[in-house]
Amino acid sequence: MKFSTLAGLAGLVLVSACTVSSSKDRVLFDGQFFRAKAKSVDKRNTPTEFTVVVNNVSASLDGAREAGRFEGTKFCIQNFGSSRIVWKVGPDTEPQNLRISDDKLTFAGTCQRP
Question: Judging by DSSP bridges, how do beta strands 85-89 and 99-101 pair with one another?
């Protein structure tokens, strides 16, 4: 009984360790790590349109902007094979026109097909 419990616990630890990313895999912007996520606005009707949400913008606005640019570029390359983006609201938007709410920065853009 003790062996099976110990074996189960060891297996659980091994599986959970596989999902943890190391800090060396993180990309820092302005010395900070920003959690950012890009996703399609409407995958069926307008698959090239997307938004990027960057968390913890108060740590560094410049860093958050670059993290958003990086995430948008990565999204377009992975989904459409091109890094070209037309931003509606993006990293080069004037600060007063950025969408910031609840310490989150939101960009909107359209991937350009190659």
Answer: unpaired
